[in-house]
Amino acid sequence: MNFIKRALLSVKARKGKSLLQIFIFTVICVLVLSGLAIQTAANKSADSARKSLGGDVTLQVDMEKMMEKMRSEGGRVRMQRTPIPVAAAEELTTYPDVKGFNFYSSAMGTASDFTPIKNEEDTEAEDVGKNGQAMNGGFTVRGSAMGDISLQGVLYSDSVQEFMDSKSKVIEGRHLTDSDTDKSVAMVEKTLAEENDLKVGDHITIQSSNNENTYTFEIVGIYETTSTGDDMGMSFAALNPVNKIYVPYTAVNKMKGDEFAGTIDSAVYYINDPANIDQFIDTAQKDSSIDFETFKLDANDAVYKQMVGPLENVASFSKNVVYLVTIAGAIILGLIVMMSIRERKYEMGVLLALGEKKWKMIGQFIVEILVVAILALGISAVSGKVVANQVGEQLLTQQLQMEETNAQPQSFMGPRAGGMGMRMGQPVQHVDPIDELSVNITSEDLGMLTIIGLLIAILSALLPSLSVLRLQPKTILTKQD
C-alpha cells in the first residue's frame, strides 16, 4: 500500500490523537502568526512615523569635553565661545543623508533708534546684568552688559524650530534665505513692530554689545510668535521672545568682531530618515575635517524615540515570542509524535518484516504530521488576525503604562536646534507616543508562518522516527508486550 495513503488512513483512524495534535499545532501557529503580524505592524508604524518626523543632528561645541579639559589643566572653568568654521560645517551638507541644513550664530545688542518691549522688572534685572553676571550669546560672562535685543543669525529662517513647529509665522514680507548672506536685512516680531510703527521696508539701527559699532538693517519680514518665554525672559528684555530679531548669520558675525568672520555657533542638518542618523554621524567622524575633540554631533532624535519607543519594545517582544514558540512548539510536538511512534512499534515491525523500506516509514510519519500542519495552518490563518489584534493592543497598552510610570521630568537644559546652543528655561519638546497598532495579516507573514510550521512538523516527526527505526524488525517484534 502506498505510504501516503497509509498515512491518511492512520490520521483518520486515530481521530483523538489527530485532533489533539491539530489543537496543539493550531495554538503554536496562532502564536507564531500573531508574533509575526505584530512585529510587521509595529515596524510599519515606526517606519511611517520616522519618515514623517524626520530627524536632525546639531553640530556644536562639546561643552563636556571642554570642561573636562579645563579641570584637567587645573584652571578655573570658564564658558567661552568656540566658533565653528563655516567651511567645516559646509562639508557635511554634501552627504547623501542630508536633505536640508541651517547655520546659526547669535548675539546680543542694544536698540538705537527703536524701543524694545520691556516690563517692570527689566531695569532691576539689567542692573544686575551690568554689575554682576549676565548671559551673552548663551554663555555666562562677568562684567558684560547684556543688551536689550537678541539677534538670531540664520541661513534659512523658515527652518528654525519655532517656525517649523508653527510657534512663529511670517505675517508680512518674507523669510530670510541663503541669498541674504552678507546682506543687512532683518525679520522683527509683530509686537515690536507695532510698538515702534515699523513695517516692511523700514530700517532699524542696533548697537553691538561691546558698544563699539552700530549696524543698520532693512526689515524684510514681520513675524508673529506665540512663545511666552520664561521667568528669565520676563526679567531680561533681550530674552523676551518679542525682542528676538532674525538676521543673516554673517551680520551677527560682523557685530561680534572680525575674529568671528567665517564662523558659526552651530549647524543643524536635517536627515532624510532618523534611521540614518548614526550612519551620518559615523561617516562625518571618519571623513570630515571637523575637530571632534572640540565639537560634537548631537542627534536630536528624542521626539522620534518618544513616539516609537513603545512600538519598538512591542516588536522586540513579538520577535522573541516567535523564537520561543517555534522552539517550544517543535519540542512539544516532537514529544507527542515520539510517544505516538513508540505505541506503534508493532505496526512498524510488521511493515518492516513485510519488506517495507525504512524511508517510506519515515515518510509516512512525516505525511501524517504534515496533514495535521496543513489543517492547523488553515485554522490559524483565519483566526490569527483576531488574536494578533488583541495581543498587540494588550502589549502596546502595557508598554505605554510602563513608559508613563518610568517617565522622568523633562530636562530644562538641552540641545537647541540653533541659537545659543542651549534651551534657556524651555522644556525639551514632548510628544505623545503612538498608542494605536493596526495589525493585519500579510502574505509575507503567512509565507513565514508556512515555512516555520512545516519546519516544526518535519523536525517533530523526523527526529523521533529516526530513533525508533534504528531497531531491526525482529527486535521490535520480540520486545512487543
From TrEMBL:
<dbReference type="Pfam" id="PF12704">
    <property type="entry name" value="MacB_PCD"/>
</dbReference>
<feature type="domain" description="MacB-like periplasmic core">
    <location>
        <begin position="134"/>
        <end position="282"/>
    </location>
</feature>
<protein>
    <submittedName>
        <fullName>ABC transporter permease</fullName>
    </submittedName>
</protein>
<dbReference type="InterPro" id="IPR050250">
    <property type="entry name" value="Macrolide_Exporter_MacB"/>
</dbReference>
<keyword id="KW-0472">Membrane</keyword>
<feature type="domain" description="ABC3 transporter permease C-terminal">
    <location>
        <begin position="322"/>
        <end position="473"/>
    </location>
</feature>
<feature type="transmembrane region" description="Helical">
    <location>
        <begin position="362"/>
        <end position="382"/>
    </location>
</feature>
<keyword id="KW-0812">Transmembrane</keyword>
<dbReference type="InterPro" id="IPR025857">
    <property type="entry name" value="MacB_PCD"/>
</dbReference>
<dbReference type="GO" id="GO:0022857">
    <property type="term" value="F:transmembrane transporter activity"/>
</dbReference>
<feature type="transmembrane region" description="Helical">
    <location>
        <begin position="20"/>
        <end position="42"/>
    </location>
</feature>
<dbReference type="GO" id="GO:0005886">
    <property type="term" value="C:plasma membrane"/>
</dbReference>
<feature type="transmembrane region" description="Helical">
    <location>
        <begin position="446"/>
        <end position="469"/>
    </location>
</feature>
<dbReference type="InterPro" id="IPR003838">
    <property type="entry name" value="ABC3_permease_C"/>
</dbReference>
<keyword id="KW-1003">Cell membrane</keyword>
<dbReference type="Pfam" id="PF02687">
    <property type="entry name" value="FtsX"/>
</dbReference>
<keyword id="KW-1133">Transmembrane helix</keyword>
<feature type="transmembrane region" description="Helical">
    <location>
        <begin position="321"/>
        <end position="341"/>
    </location>
</feature>
